[in-house]
Design brief:
Strand content of chain C: under 5%
Radius of gyration of chain C: 25 Å
Structural class of chain C: mainly alpha
Largest interface: B-C, 105 and 103 residues
Number of helices of chain A: 16
Oligomer: heterotrimer
Distance between the termini of chain C: 23 Å
Chains: A alpha/beta, B mainly alpha, C mainly alpha
Structural class of chain A: alpha/beta
Helix content of chain C: 55-70%
Shape of chain C: flat
Largest sheet of chain C: none
Largest sheet of chain A: 9 strands, mixed
Number of strands of chain A: 11
């Protein structure tokens, strides 16, 4: 009895060693990280399953974390030598990783890969450093506007989309925005406080694209000097301030009207700043807004249409031990194929990730879920992301564009500083930061 | 010099044995990290690449950094919340220590702020401080005062946060409650027999007996106030116009948004020294007003 | 004479009743104020996504979406995360109670050389902001191979790393009358015996407080789990809750629903713990 048992044990041990050994020998494990929400966790797990069916020898472990936590954890992991094999990096993070030589350039891999149609890639400039391709896009996004179609129809106004399609910058520009917003700002009970506002442009990216659409910029080409005090910069600042203070069609920042239920979602703001990758979450079942809404490109300034567009690029960490496998995963994840296959499984990337290929604009996985909000307009927006990359490549980008400029613009909009003074203060601060003095 | 007595060494041995878990923990988990953070403060490091040794450059930069001084000012003013909460917490604990029906229910309700989701609390306080329809300005308007824009006004944002800090009083209330519980009732009985009134009993028994806990809440209040982060991060993001740029918020921005970990570490060490000095001063002077039953 | 005494007693009673009414009034007023955010949480959790911010505030959603609780809990692997959090939290409470009480007793009742300096060092461990110790600690735990396990979150608590609890217990230990010590020594008790049989029981309220704080600390800690855990199935509740807060949008409805579910054990614990350690009060300093 004992002998049978021990024999049985030995056989099962050998057997399991064989199986375990075989699996182990053939199976490569890589880790992939991206920022996202609970929906993203679900879709990534599904994509991993699809990938595994095509590459049974590669196991992908996904790490999804919310935005702030992601930006805390990834640097710590990299500093601690535990960087994931594939990291999805937004522009600021990508710049840092590249500057610190923390990534493995995939330039040669891509150039020799015949299965990638690189001309189809969205915002290729985002992934190029010194002419070398260092990553593949995981998602793309444009910061555009969305408007409440029902409010426009009720007021008998031509919608921004119609204006844009009919006359482009001649018909959809700052002036026509102000005009429409005036008619959509309503103070029913005459208490001086509108119950409905025409427009709210509370988005730092749109603030920057507006500066560019006015012909101005924040930094010069060499990225060593602040040029916000150009006529274009002043015009843009003045435009924002006028919306609030002169035409009174945008809510003053100090009133915090969002807390009072005056929001786009509650139907009390007619036009608001939105994103083509995130605002679409309001199209999911159970989250729909109680009115019909559509996207529209931000109105043309004196220098035309400009749109903030960027990608999160997947890069291979320089410390990765399985670079080939990492590349296979990146390739799949970034491909049109991933979108199509995921859609077959009943989920879609359209609610979270903008397209990584221009050809994705035309596939059902993108068109169907988003058709209510005008997919064509999103496509138009992508055309105005000039230059590409849109966000200047300086280590101070985040501080300049997400702290200093918005703070001074906010000061001007609240009326505590004149436009002149706000711009001058911003210029001084930015120049100090660029010189390493702050 | 007199030879140290046997009891001296016995006490030393006993003492160190009792605190040995902490000594081990400190040596392994804490000391290294603290030391490393000081070394980091002498470097230029984005965390992504390799650190570059630059000596005391970071510290020199701090002296000229207007945001450093601004954040120090903001954080120092915020310290006003410490005496405020010290008093409120004590009053609340005394109130909740009375012999009243339904006391345990009251206590649980008053503990709710400590367990309510931080995000919900932040949002509700944003509402309370809303310039137009928030409760505070609404009440003020009833007595004819037009309230400020609070969190949207660079002069009133900080006072608003100080008022909001009273929300967190549940923690200190708990410790005061525990301390009040520990006062031997014989003391009060003896005092009543001696003819002491309410105020006398409060002044000569209650307060002295809970001074150890007052010291606890004072020091913890200061340490925590200097490290305020979440409210500013979630509610105002340092604005408007840097009026709520708390020290640790600025530090966090430098470290995790602008990839200047070395500079952030230097900021951390300056803060550490400031808190350390404050604590030592309070501690040393505490011997005069804190009543312990020491051996 | 009897009339005067009678009158005095009568006035005393009215005073007492008036006092009680005032106290109750204040307490109820405070209770309402204090529970408002909590009610807002409940109210929001029952709303339809997208309708969280109507004005005036809709306190009772019609119809109440009770399914939000189920949806929020099942959107993400909260069941798994609950187990993880329980393991970590219970272990940490035990660790803190054991190690911090020992250490605090040493600092409070034994006059050993270097005590004051060491105590200041204990306090100083709370003075360095966490962002700068995160990377060195990560490196340390990586060297110990504890990354992606619960060990970095639990083991330090057994070694007195909870400086606040040490401080708290030290203050409470220091209030124990010296006579208790002397009496025990006469009976032949050593320091450890005094600690175990006299000091600990005497400061039961403080131990209860440490248990509550330690529970809250672990239960709601997201930073520790964020840094030290990388496998999603090892995450904790607090970390999981963060998923509802996106880069541009917050899923308020489900965030509140999940937060409420997370808060229930804290409330139960507090209710239970307070019955355990608060002996009914007979006489306080303020009664007439």
């Amino acid at each position: 009895m004992k002998r049978t048992v021990s024999l049985g044990l030995v056989i099962s041990l050998v057997f399991s060693l064989l199986i375990w050994g075989t699996n182990n020998a053939a199976s490569v494990k890589i880790t992939f990280s991206r920022h996202g929400t609970e929906t993203d966790l679900e879709t990534e797990n599904k994509l991993v399953k699809i990938f595994k069916s095509k590459h049974p020898d590669i196991d992908v472990e996904v790490l999804v974390l919310p935005w702030n936590d992601y930006n805390t954890k990834i640097p710590v992991m990299v500093a601690g030598g535990s960087a994931p094999d594939v990291i999805s990096a937004h522009p600021a993070l990508l710049f840092q990783i590249y500057a610190a030589k923390g990534l493995y350039s995939i330039n040669s891999m891509v150039k020799t890969d015949t299965t990638i149609n690189y001309d189809d890639i969205v915002f290729p400039g985002d992934a190029k450093f010194s002419g070398q391709i260092v990553g593949l896009p995981q998602k793309s996004c444009t910061h555009i506007l969305r408007y409440n179609e029902d409010l426009f129809k009720k007021a008998g106004l031509t919608t921004p989309s119609d204006l844009y399609y009919k006359g482009k910058e001649k018909a959809w520009n700052w002036d026509s925005l102000i005009e429409a917003a005036k008619k959509l700002t309503v103070d029913e009970n005459g208490d001086g406080q509108p119950e409905q506002y025409g427009v709210s442009l509370d988005d730092n990216c749109i603030k920057f694209s507006t500066i560019r659409s006015a012909g101005g910029d924040v930094l010069d080409k060499a990225l060593t000097k602040c040029v916000l005090n150009s006529p274009g910069g002043k015009k843009a600042f003045q435009f924002f301030v006028d919306l609030v203070r002169k035409y009174k069609v945008a809510p003053p920042p100090e009133l915090q009207v969002g807390q009072l239920g005056i929001q786009f979602k509650t139907g009390k703001i007619a036009i608001e700043a939105a994103t083509s990758c995130d605002s679409v979450r309001d199209l999911r079942k159970g989250y729909e807004l109680p009115f019909s809404w559509k996207f529209v490109v931000p109105p043309a300034g004196p220098a035309g249409f400009r749109v903030w567009g960027d990608t999160d690029q997947m890069i291979i960490s320089i410390t990765s031990k399985n670079k080939k496998a990492a590349y296979e995963w990146m390739k799949f994840r970034s491909s049109k194929e991933a979108w199509v296959e995921l859609y077959k499984e009943g989920m879609t990337l359209a609610f979270t990730d903008g397209p990584t290929r221009f050809s994705i604009f035309d596939i059902p996985a993108f068109k169907e879920p988003l058709k209510a909000v005008d997919v064509n307009m999103i496509k138009e927006a992508y055309k105005y992301v000039i230059p590409n990359p849109f966000l200047p490549r300086t280590p101070y980008a985040d501080r300049i564009f997400f702290t200093i400029v918005p703070t001074e613009l906010d000061n001007a909009m609240r009326g505590t500083k004149s436009v002149e003074q706000a711009i001058n203060d911003a210029v001084k601060l930015i120049n100090d930061v660029l010189a390493g003095k702050a | 010099m007199a030879k140290k007595s046997k009891t001296y060494w016995k006490r030393a041995l006993e003492g160190y044995l009792f605190i040995s878990p902490w000594i081990v923990g400190f040596a392994i988990f804490t000391a290294g990290a603290i030391g490393a953070s000081f070394v980091i403060s002498l470097t230029n490091w984005s965390m992504i690449g390799n650190p570059r040794f630059i000596g005391v450059e970071n510290y020199k930069r701090i002296v000229n950094d207007k945001f450093f001084w601004q954040s120090l000012k903001v954080t120092s003013i915020y310290l006003l919340n410490v005496p405020l909460n010290l008093i409120i917490g004590l009053l609340l604990a005394i109130l909740l220590n009375q012999k009243i029906k339904g006391l345990s229910i009251y206590r649980s309700i008053y503990y709710l702020p400590s367990v309510t989701a931080g995000v919900a609390v932040s949002l509700l306080w944003l509402w309370i401080f809303n310039p137009r329809f928030g409760i505070i300005n609404l009440l003020l308007s009833y007595i004819g005062i037009k309230g400020p824009a609070w969190l949207s006004d660079e002069h009133w944002a900080l006072p608003a946060l100080i008022i909001m800090s009273t929300w967190g009083v549940g923690g200190s209330m708990l410790t005061y409650l525990g301390a009040l519980q520990g006062i031997p009732t014989q003391l009060y009985e003896a005092a009543i027999l001696d003819g002491a009134g309410i105020w006398d009993r409060f002044k000569y028994i209650t307060i002295p007996m809970i001074t150890p806990v007052i010291l606890l809440n004072l020091i913890m209040g200061i340490i925590n106030s200097f490290q305020t982060f979440t409210q500013a991060f979630v509610m105002t993001n340092g604005g408007p116009n840097y009026a709520t740029l708390f020290y640790v918020l600025y530090l966090y921005q430098q470290a995790f948004r602008w990839f200047n970990m070395g500079y952030a570490a230097a900021l951390a060490w300056i803060l550490f020294l400031i808190i350390l000095v404050c604590t030592i001063v309070i501690f040393k002077t505490s011997a005069r007003w804190v009543y312990y039953e020491r051996s | 004479m009897n009339n005067q005494l009678g009158l005095w007693l009568h006035r005393k009673n009215t005073q007492e009743i008036l006092g009680k009414v005032v106290v109750h009034f204040l307490l109820i007023l405070g209770a309402v104020l204090v529970s408002l955010p909590f009610f807002w949480m409940i109210s929001t959790a029952l709303k339809r996504p997208g309708t969280e911010f109507t004005w005036p505030i809709e306190w009772i959603p019609k119809p109440p979406h009770w399914e939000n609780f189920h949806t929020a809990w099942t959107m993400l692997p909260f069941n798994r995360w609950l187990i993880n959090t329980l393991i970590i939290t219970v272990s940490t409470i035990i660790g803190n109670l054991l190690s911090c009480s020992l250490v605090a007793y040493g600092f409070a009742r034994i006059d050993f050389p270097g005590r004051d300096i060491l105590f200041i060092i204990v306090l100083s461990t709370m003075m360095l902001p966490y962002p700068v110790t995160m990377v060195p600690l990560f490196l340390l735990f990586k060297a110990l191979k504890w990354i992606d396990t619960f060990k970095p979150l639990v083991v330090p608590s057994f070694f007195g790393v909870g400086a606040f609890y040490i401080f708290l217990l030290r203050q409470f230990f220091a209030t124990i009358p010296k006579e208790y010590d002397d009496a025990a020594r006469i009976d032949g008790c050593g320091s450890f015996g005094i600690y175990r049989y006299i000091a600990l029981p005497t400061i039961k309220p403080a131990l209860g407080i440490v248990a509550i704080f330690s529970f809250m600390g672990s239960w709601n800690d997201f930073l520790g789990p964020l840094i030290y855990l990388s496998s999603t199935n090892r995450f904790t509740l607090a970390l999981g809750l963060r998923f509802f807060q996106g880069q541009w949008q917050v899923d308020w409805v489900h965030l509140m629903a999940a937060s409420l579910l997370m808060v229930i054990p804290c409330i139960i614990l507090f209710f239970v713990a307070q019955r355990y350690y608060i002996q009914g009060v007979v006489v306080t300093g303020l009664k007439g």
